[in-house]
Amino acid sequence: MSDVKLTMAHHKRPFANYEAKHFLWSVSNDAGGRPSIGTITLNRPDKKNPLTFDSYAELRDLFRGLVYATDIKTIVVTGAGGNFCSGGDVHEIIGPLTKMSMPELLDFTRMTGDLVKAMRACPQPIISAIDGICAGAGAMMALASDMRLGTPQAKTAFLFVRVGLAGADMGACTLLPRMIGQGRASELLYTGRVMTAEEGLQWGFFNGLHDGGAVLSAAQTLADQIACGPTFAHGVTKKLLHQEWNMGVDEAIEAEAEAQAICMQTKDFRRAYDAFVAKQKPVFNGD
User: pLDDT digits over 152-196, tens only?
Assistant: First the structure.
């Protein structure tokens, strides 16, 4: 057991100085002055921020690595130039896919799915700030986030059917019905049509709508609020929100009982109690 703890400790590291190659990465401080909020900006505005083989892989690897981050408490994902993400680049991804063998295609589709898995498995809550086009794989990144803030101009489309593919891509057939309902998800996945911002808000896809110039700030404010909370406990919440999809009620209640008992052993739990007794606001350290 001690060897396992040493191995895990060896992988722990700060991510404030991570140097992204295929998108922008920045880290800002929370209200307590601690580096805490990591912002990913998809940065190909001339093409509405499409993904490439390389950006898919780097995003997957970053989210996997954030499991071991000592400084990142929340993550914001956004796009440059008034759009979120237009999906896979037509010339750099879709064109090459038409020439690949079945094993190569399966490697690719598994890699794209691994991005969603990595986003769901990283303990930090993820907030997407969505303006303009949010399509294909971009819509799936938004869907894989824990919360989504949009603008009235946001246009979300799961447009796989438009390029002759199934709506079953990157987990869409399981994630989208749970978010907006089976019938609405079926319509979007069969037709590939745009879900308007108003529909997205009414259906529960968006947590809120903000003006274009304010959506990123709103997402970062929400990220700051969450970062100042008990981040170990937030990670437990995220894990169980994901795992309980496959549990019965009795099993879920037992899992939450065990999880809460673990959280009651944290220093943050004691800090909250001491602050309450002293009539002060608790300062959480995530331990």
Answer: 999 999 999 998 899 999 999 999 999 999 999 999 999 999 999
- State the pLDDT at residue 34: 76
**237, 111: one domain:** no
Q: How far apart are CA 42 and CA 201, in angstroms?
A: 23
- The whole-number pLDDT of residue 30 equals 75
For residue 244, give the nearest of 235, 256, 231, 232 by alpha carbon.
Answer: 256
Among 188, 165, 164, 192, which Cα is nearest to 176's?
A: 188
116 and 144 Cβ atoms separated by less than 8 Å = yes
Same domain, 86 and 221: yes
Residues 103 and 195 in one domain: yes
User: Which residue type occupies 287?
Assistant: D
Give residue 44's pLDDT: 96
Does a structural domain hold residue 169?
yes
Indicate whether 130 and 38 sit together in one domain: yes
Question: Do residues 244 and 197 share a domain?
Answer: no
In the prediction, which pLDDT does 163 show? Answer: 87
Residue 261 lies in domain = 231-278
pLDDT score at 89: 84
Spans of the chain below 50 pLDDT: 1-2, 4-8
Exposure of 67 by Cβ count < 10 A (0-12 exposed, 13-18 middle, 19+ buried)? middle
Domain-embedded: residue 61: yes
